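Students often ask why we bother predicting the structure of a whole assembly rather than each chain alone. The short answer is interfaces. A chain on its own may look different once its partners are present, and contacts between molecules only exist in the joint model. In this exercise we take two input lines together and write out one structure for the complete complex. Read the inputs first and try to guess which parts will touch.
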Amino acid sequence: MIKITEKHIDVQKVVDTVSSLAAGAVNVFIGTVRNNAKGKNVVWLEYEAYETMAVAEIRKIIDEASHRWPLLGWAVSHRIGTLKPGEVSVVVAVSTPHRKDSFEACQFIIDTLKEKAPIWKKEVFENGEEWVSARPELAAKA
Amino acid sequence: MKLKVKAFGVTKDYLGGKEAVIEMEGRTVGDLRAELNERYPQLLGLRSLYIAVNRDYADENRVLEITDEIALIPPVSGG
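Now the answer. The structure tokens for the assembled complex follow.
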């Protein structure tokens, strides 16, 4: 399941979609909105996606992961729109027969998603806003 | 040729909206990039700028068709 949604992500529902009786491990990454960036308070984040391409890129990442690890189930759900600190922005869940593969596959999927999926976030501070990592002088820790 | 270009993230601010129509002499992604840089020099200040054609990252020598779906992909920051 690949989903880009403006609605609250129900983590348990995403986890449920990867369950398998053949699995010995379910690994879940939950990305949440941090209340600070570069020493400033983040009031909210605006997420935007090029949805059709984001789904296509995530599909390629899953295909690659499926070649490298024995995935029994997988799911990626990414939120867009306005998110407040503490809210869930992304969930990646995978199930595999053994735990090591589940850790590796889950990390590969979220790391590659962050690098390749056409999704952007803008940090809105109390007195300004900026698109994360867009310009070199702003490209500290995304 | 006349192309419709979708803009995302910070490029929406630079192009002044979600879509721009670009008329240019050349035919490739590289030609389009040169034309965009001339019209919107702020693009040169980005850490990177990929151009997607039909929902896929495209090479600079890719030849464009007027029916292609073209999009500007500034540095991504999902997750």
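Check your guess against this: The longest strand of chain A covers residues 40-49.
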